[in-house]
Amino acid sequence: MLISLNDTHEVLSNRESGYGRYDVKVIPKDVLKFGIVIEFKKLDPDDVETLEETADAALKQISDKKYTTTLESRGIENIKEIAIVFKGKEIYIKEKSYIVI
């Protein structure tokens, strides 16, 4: 799905950034476009955490482990952090967008 972005973006996965390894990073070739970090989480059916709680934890992980460091060092100021959580056939997506000043 992300391979179609190759003309306009660099798509990387499972690489070190900040203090850990992100799941997917989409780096625009045009620094005025959004840079994106995606963190995926899977919940087992017997887990007590909700999809929303797990999405919040995934967004916190992106922030705490500074996965956006590479985007910021390349001069990208518009950043989206996306958490995608699965539990069986349920899916929950939560995002946070901001501009680096």
Discrete helix count:
2
Distance between the termini: 31 Å
Supply the number of structural domains: 1
Secondary-structure content class: alpha+beta
- Give the neighbour order of strands across the main sheet: 1-4-5-6-7
- Main beta sheet strand tally, sense and closure: 5 strands, mixed
At CATH level 3, the topology is Trna Endonuclease, Chain: A, domain 1
Query: How would you state the average pLDDT, rounded?
Result: 93
Shape: globular
CATH architecture: 3-Layer(aba) Sandwich
**Low-pLDDT sequence parts:** none
Would you summarize the structure shown here?
The protein has 101 residues and is α+β, with helices and mostly antiparallel strands. The chain is built from two helices and seven strands, in the order E-E-E-E-E-H-H-E-E.
Can you describe this structure?
The protein is an alpha+beta fold. The chain has one domain (2-99): Trna Endonuclease, Chain: A, domain 1 (3-Layer(aba) Sandwich). Helices cover 19% and strands 43% of the residues. It is built from 2 helices and 7 strands. The strands form 2 sheets. It has a 5-stranded mixed sheet with strand order 1-4-5-6-7, with helices on one face. The mean pLDDT is 93.
